[in-house]
Amino acid sequence: MLPERFTAFLRSLTGSRTDGKKLKPRSCAGQKGSGTLAGPDAEHARRSSGLEHFFAYIGEGTGLSILDLSGANQANVAFITNLGHKLYSNDFVRNLELNFGDSLYDGQVNPRHMEYFLLQNLNYEEQQFDGVLVWDVLEYLAAPMLPPAIDQLFRMVKPGSYLFAVFHSQERAESVLSYSFRIQDARNLLLSPRGMRRPAQLFSNRAIEKVFQRYEYVKFFLTRENLREVIVKR
Q1: Helical H segments across the chain, by residue range
Q2: What is the mean pLDDT of each run of 10 residues along the chain (234 residues)?
Q3: Which pLDDT value is given to residue 40?
Q4: Which residues share a beta bridge with 165?
């Protein structure tokens, strides 16, 4: 159950544009009132319990520093800055592709290449962030790159802060549908497909817990789609 003091706060968050007008949830073709989608490859809005908990844990304070690893988009920038927070954006998966090219996963086993990439993309101050929107980027890190990236995230966030991550649930899939994640409000996401991608690795619940074993706890949220939402506390 969410903390009682955040109930009114969550009800009031409807997402706003920089001009002060309210953002209305977008519907996709073929979407019925029950939330039935036209297909998994169509842009669609969905309820996100993980996102709801992330903003509830952040609380009613202002001036917090949030890192978004999906890259800058108007919806996320407007929503988070209108709450009074600072937003830092990094299109982590795109930068992986630009740095490693055709050797996306093979290149991540080279220690010098890994160190250079992490210095370029996760080189923030110690305990700089109050929260990180990780999304699905960890699935595109090869096994050698994953531990130092997780350690770097641990170093960057303040004790007691939270990470919000998304994992595909098809643990044996050779390719998965990747998304651009846009925040509509504190409870809803707009998922825009970015095409099929071959992940470096997919994770079971136990594997996710092992990845974040240095953190205080990991909390899972079930969804009706092939996505697994996770809140991690530093």
Answers
A1: 7-12, 49-58, 74-82, 92-100, 111-121, 146-156, 205-211
A2: 44 39 36 41 86 88 91 92 94 88 77 89 95 95 93 96 93 85 93 87 94 95 84 96
A3: 55
A4: 135, 230
Distance CA(7)–CA(16), nearest Å, equals 19
Q: What is the pLDDT of residue 2?
A: 44
Residues 50 and 62: their CA atoms lie apart, in Å, by: 21
Q: How confident is the model at residue 39, as a pLDDT?
A: 53
Q: Do 175 and 165 meet the contact criterion of CB atoms below 8 Å apart?
A: no
- Pair type for strands 157-168 and 227-233: antiparallel
pLDDT value for 177:
86
Closest alpha carbon to 211 in 132, 170, 130, 151: 151
Distance CA 224, CA 209 (A): 21
Sign of the CA dihedral running 147, 90, 110, 124: negative
Residue boundaries of the structural domains of the chain: 41-233
CATH H superfamily, domain 41-233 = Vaccinia Virus protein VP39 (3.40.50.150)
